[in-house]
């Protein structure tokens, strides 16, 4: 195992992966989250490990067990995920943002359980910080991979995210397609680079998908270093 890792395409590289959904607290017993299972991020962490990388996995709420061999850091909110990632960003060669980060959080986190009152209470929300965009602004040599979960106009939105967040790759998936997206063990993704579509992968296991994504990343990293 150690022998093969030492020969791997990512031997000696440090890879930082985020996976799972974030949790934004409303009160001590309630929160807002999403359908992310964490499986795509776990598959990426595992693939990076198999390819020889030193892997740190920052994980939110997930519905599976993280792979063996990788360092795990558990977080809840988008704010905590940003802190965990920012701390480790300088030392990373590849950063993969597979987590489904909440776009909004409750504007007021109540320290006590909220009692019911009234018929139509309103939950006020505020924007969270965009972690990937923040990293994109401060990146130097880091190779940055973002995800784009879409239900329509996949190419347009994926390229828009790649540019806006200063990513080197964006992995887009049409989460409304059969066999793609959140909970299953398969996915159907397109890999975009600054020049546009690089590869459109057929339906395959998240494990195989992860291997293809990391192969593209490893090749581009190697040619950037050459
Ligand atoms: N992302 C992030 N921080 C956020 C929101 C998103 O780092 N607060 C990252 C995700 O991890 C993913 C990428 O940005 O890698 C795209 O996430 P997505 O939800 O598809 O895009 P958004 O920019 O949030 O746009 P929208 O949800 O409106 O499509
Ligand atoms: Ca979003």
Automatic annotation (TrEMBL):
What function does this protein fulfil?
A: Catalyzes two steps in the biosynthesis of coenzyme A. In the first step cysteine is conjugated to 4'-phosphopantothenate to form 4-phosphopantothenoylcysteine, in the latter compound is decarboxylated to form 4'-phosphopantotheine. Catalyzes two sequential steps in the biosynthesis of coenzyme A. In the first step cysteine is conjugated to 4'-phosphopantothenate to form 4-phosphopantothenoylcysteine. In the second step the latter compound is decarboxylated to form 4'-phosphopantotheine.
Keywords assigned = Decarboxylase, Flavoprotein, FMN, Ligase, Lyase, Magnesium, Metal-binding, Multifunctional enzyme
Record family assignment: In the N-terminal section; belongs to the HFCD (homo-oligomeric flavin containing Cys decarboxylase) superfamily.
> How is the cofactor bound, in the record's words?
Binds 1 FMN per subunit.
Q: Which gene encodes it?
A: coaBC
Query: According to the UniProt record, where is the region Phosphopantothenate--cysteine ligase?
Result: 15-226
Binding positions for CTP?
103, 113, 147, 161, 165
Molecular function via GO: phosphopantothenate--cysteine ligase activity; phosphopantothenoylcysteine decarboxylase activity
Q: What is its EC number?
A: 4.1.1.36, 6.3.2.5
- Give the species: Paenibacillus thailandensis
Which pathway is it part of? Cofactor biosynthesis; coenzyme A biosynthesis; CoA from (R)-pantothenate: step 2/5; Cofactor biosynthesis; coenzyme A biosynthesis; CoA from (R)-pantothenate: step 3/5
The cofactor(s) it depends on are: Mg(2+); FMN
What is this protein identified as?
Answer: Coenzyme A biosynthesis bifunctional protein CoaBC
Give the reactions, separated by semicolons, that this protein catalyses.
Answer: (R)-4'-phosphopantothenate + L-cysteine + CTP = N-[(R)-4-phosphopantothenoyl]-L-cysteine + CMP + diphosphate + H(+); N-[(R)-4-phosphopantothenoyl]-L-cysteine + H(+) = (R)-4'-phosphopantetheine + CO2
Stretches assigned to the DNA/pantothenate metabolism flavoprotein C-terminal domain:
10-218
């Amino acid at each position: 195992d150690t022998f093969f890792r030492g020969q791997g395409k990512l031997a000696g590289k440090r890879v930082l992966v985020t996976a799972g959904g974030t949790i934004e607290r409303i009160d001590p017993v309630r929160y807002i989250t999403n359908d992310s299972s964490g499986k795509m991020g776990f598959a990426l962490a595992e693939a990076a490990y198999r390819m020889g990388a030193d892997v740190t996995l920052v994980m939110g709420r997930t519905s599976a067990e993280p792979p063996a061999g990788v360092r795990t850091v558990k977080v809840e909110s988008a704010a905590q995920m940003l802190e965990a990632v920012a701390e480790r960003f300088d030392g990373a060669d590849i950063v993969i943002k597979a987590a489904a980060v909440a776009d909004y959080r409750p504007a007021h986190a109540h320290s006590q359980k909220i009692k019911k009152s009234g018929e139509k209470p309103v939950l006020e929300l505020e924007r969270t910080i965009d972690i990937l965009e923040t990293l994109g602004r401060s990146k130097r040599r880091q190779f940055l991979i973002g995800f784009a979960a879409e239900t329509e106009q996949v190419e347009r939105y994926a390229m828009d995210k790649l540019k806006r967040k200063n990513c080197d790759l964006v992995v887009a998936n049409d989460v409304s397609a059969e066999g793609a997206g959140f909970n299953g063990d398969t996915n159907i993704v397109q890999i975009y680079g600054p020049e546009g579509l690089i590869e459109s992968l057929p339906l395959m296991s998240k494990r195989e998908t992860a291997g293809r994504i990391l192969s593209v990343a490893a090749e581009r990293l190697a040619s950037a270093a050459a």
